[in-house]
Q: What sequence folds into this?
């Protein structure tokens, strides 16, 4: 993987006019110079730091997977991944040179359980910085010099971006269907969401530019100066925005002076790539906006949630130094560094794996998720059509006595989906217009797509199917978006394929198809009850 | 330790009018009902939760201290604490009943490294809730039913309180000298700080009431509806506010409808108590405001930083349920739960220690800190006076040739301090008025106390003393407070006694006294240089 070349790079633009009123007031912690004055030759009567001897944890040890646990090619559904492990030991003290706040790469409990700068344990922070800038982003970030700040996960990172850039009354651009937690996090900031049209490559750059060109502050509120996007495995649609499209969108953001908060939890789980060696794997992936960010207007948000474990609660932000500085001041005043237990284990894991080992680990996960995607998509494709025998409804209910009914077979497509290009999520469009409840019938009023999805969700969740899905309406960026989807006569369910063992996914896909079929045929919404009413 | 008795308790008051504009908009996460719908009998196609088999950590093990590591009575300065340990092992799976989000008290990596409710790992959250409500606060919180919310430390907790209750333009009451990080955290919220007068029992309740009774919104801005206080080991003064005074202050807060954010990192390190058995230790401590909080207007902030280790990054807030609910919604949108690695280790530690073991651990730390306090205070008391031989300055500089100078000994008290009643901190008043630089001399303009403290700080920090201290000015709640302190002709240094080994503290205290003496005698501020100038 290439390191940044040595040619000089331009400074990022001064974009400090984007800072929120709150961020403008954030300055360096008043105690920081005194903590920085703590060196091994100094007696600490200043900072109220307990001695490491008072920490009750004397060592932390354990077992971690070897990087080849998951094979790079599909496994037989009944085979198991490798259970080889490496042991690790994190001692209480790893150096005879005392340091209250260590600035070197030591990994020990005396350091990780002590107070730290809110930039985190150096051994972990340095790994993240090197990995994200030189490997994940291939040393290609165009300006001098991007920095990485450790956070308590991606949601924490986005929340810190909002605190740093959003004022009440601002507007933010979000994909028309988007990650619900990001949408939920925006609203209390009294920031208006401006939905962006999507196609199968993500944000429609032309429609975006038109919206911004014709923005009327009188009718639409303050013009957006921020964008939130998930471009590599969009949540929920699973699309990947290729570089060419990204360049168009970035130009629109330059023209209209918009910051980009790019949240990429799924970035390495891209499926439409030419598979290569571990050495070249990262280079084959569609890139982040960071790689074309000549201005320094992108804040790249990332996390270990999907590549290590959600419980790490460790993420990071890559951005220009002036942004990282304000975000660090905010971190000083709020979360500080992540847990020292977690930092030490992660730092040790990456020390034992190395960058190439971490990439190999990710590749293995990707191969496993690709297999899951394919198994579920195949099973779902099988079940998407309902074969019906066309008859009039009256005839159907007196079937036994009717010798003359027509019996044409018709195929109803109950649901459809794009195979996701990245991530773990299937955005399944439910063709509610083809469902009996969407038609006016016997004086009963027609149900809206959202109402049908609500009944469908319950039907899938109840016995005998017992499937948890997420209804599409919670992904709508705004109530207006949901109205448009309803008006199109469709609804959605989001299915995640990572929570089910590969060996079980075919069956689960079939259960889904069967449950859809019975829902179209009358189960789950009281057709019998309706009929009974009528026949009384 | 008593549990809450069974008699019915009143509901807390509805104090929702205190919520910030931001908090009023915070509602339950839109995905929460779907995550709650995940039970062992349900197939998860909904939440994008990786399977635990993909977490690379297979086990976490280690060694923790036994609870008697630190003896309850002063050790000889050269003796070592007990090095007995207990081993622990946290397995990947601890139960054959699968749970994506476990609601029981299991401690395993499959649970702690998975997504969790932002209320944290149940085994740890339940311990904290029981410990803080039934033991730390003795089951005495007067209303029905207080709750505890886990946070990423005390600074995170206070930041969340500000987000939940502070609007721009609000005012907050803070002790006139206060914890700098809390003061720094307030300012970006565009909240004005109203300083409260302190005496040796903490906040002066009468002065506080007078200020609020006579508050002029025209001259002083919006009347405060929030108070931040550290009442059990005030930072920096080390005072403890006894129950009687607390009742007076609480009544003032009731009268003026003020919420109390009570930050008590030092609560168990109280020194003026009648020592008792481990069973009764917590009952001997001066209580939190929570124990008299009939209205539910106190948010008690606490942390494991001083009783386990700063790197835990785990704290908690105890408050009435309506407050905890809003703080939980904010947690959903920001930090989520603390690190699963840290949660698992802490939960395991407390399982092995039990509540009584944890109390015994705390008692041992307290005994160790009491000894440190006494050693340092004794050494500092020795060195606080400078014996000077009274002469005119002119005579002094021609001493060799002056046979007739008077030689009266005078004692100058260079510094003084109250022995802290709790905590780790000594608030040392420097009598700058007695320092030569405070007097106009030979046309050189007199230095302010703050300027003298700045020179003194450098003098102490430099060789041969190499002592890090914290100058008093960074504790001033407002610039106005600092002006008043300057006007009184004094300055301060804060000394922490926990960062130095007990065996070294006597020497360090003597070094401090010597350094003060040489600073009074002319080192560290260029007396020789001044003299040289004059004699040219």
A:
């Amino acid at each position: 993987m290439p390191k940044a070349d040595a040619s000089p790079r331009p400074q990022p633009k001064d974009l400090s006019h984007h800072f929120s009123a709150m961020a403008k007031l954030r300055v360096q912690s008043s105690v920081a110079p005194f903590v920085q004055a703590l060196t091994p030759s100094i007696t600490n009567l200043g900072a109220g730091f307990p001695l490491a001897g008072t920490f009750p944890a004397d060592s932390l040890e354990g077992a971690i997977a070897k990087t080849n646990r998951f094979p790079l090619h599909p496994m037989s559904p009944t085979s198991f991944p490798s259970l080889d492990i490496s042991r690790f030991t994190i001692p209480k003290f790893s150096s005879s040179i005392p340091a209250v706040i260590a600035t070197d790469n030591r990994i020990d409990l005396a350091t990780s359980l002590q107070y730290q700068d809110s930039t985190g344990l150096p051994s972990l922070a340095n790994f993240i910085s090197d990995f994200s800038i030189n490997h994940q982003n291939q040393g290609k970030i165009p300006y001098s010099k991007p920095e990485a700040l450790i956070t308590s996960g991606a949601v924490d990172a986005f929340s810190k971006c909002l605190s740093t850039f959003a004022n009440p009354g601002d507007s933010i651009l979000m994909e028309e269907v988007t990650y619900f937690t990001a949408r939920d996090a925006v609203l209390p900031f009294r920031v208006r969401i401006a939905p962006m049209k999507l196609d199968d490559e993500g944000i429609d750059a032309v429609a975006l530019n038109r919206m911004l060109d014709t923005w009327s502050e009188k009718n639409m509120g303050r013009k957006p100066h921020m964008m939130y996007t998930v471009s590599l495995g969009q949540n929920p649609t699973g699309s990947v925005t290729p570089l060419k499209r990204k360049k168009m969108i970035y130009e629109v953001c330059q023209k209209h002076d918009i910051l980009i908060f790019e949240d990429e939890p799924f970035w390495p789980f891209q499926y439409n790539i030419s598979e290569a060696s571990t050495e070249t794997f990262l280079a084959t992936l569609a890139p982040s906006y960071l790689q074309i960010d000549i201005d320094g207007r992108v804040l790249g948000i990332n996390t270990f949630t999907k590549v290590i474990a959600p419980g790490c609660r460790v993420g990071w932000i890559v951005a220009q130094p002036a942004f990282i500085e304000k975000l660090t001041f905010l971190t000083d005043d709020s979360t500080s560094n992540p847990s020292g237990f977690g930092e030490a284990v992660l730092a040790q894991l990456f020390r034992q794996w190395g960058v190439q080992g971490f990439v190999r680990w990710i590749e293995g996960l990707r191969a496993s998720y690709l297999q899951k995607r394919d198994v579920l998509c195949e099973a779902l494709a099988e079940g998407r059509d309902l074969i019906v025998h066309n008859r009039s409804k009256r005839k159907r209910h007196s079937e036994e006595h009717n010798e003359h009914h027509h019996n044409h077979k018709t195929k109803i497509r109950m649901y459809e989906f794009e195979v996701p290009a990245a991530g773990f999520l299937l955005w399944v469009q439910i063709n509610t217009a083809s469902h009996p409840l969407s038609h006016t019938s016997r004086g009963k009023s027609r149900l809206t797509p959202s109402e049908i999805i609500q009944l469908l969700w319950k039907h899938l969740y109840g016995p005998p199917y017992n499937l948890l899905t997420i209804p599409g309406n919670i992904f709508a960026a705004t109530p207006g978006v949901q109205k448009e989807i309803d008006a199109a006569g469709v609804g959605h369910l989001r299915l995640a394929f990572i929570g089910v063992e590969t060996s079980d996914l075919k069956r689960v896909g079939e259960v889904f198809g069967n449950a859809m079929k019975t829902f179209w045929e009358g189960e789950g919404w009281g057709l019998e009850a309706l009929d009974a009413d009528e026949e009384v």
In short: Confidence is low (pLDDT under 50) at residues 394-403, 528-536 of chain A.
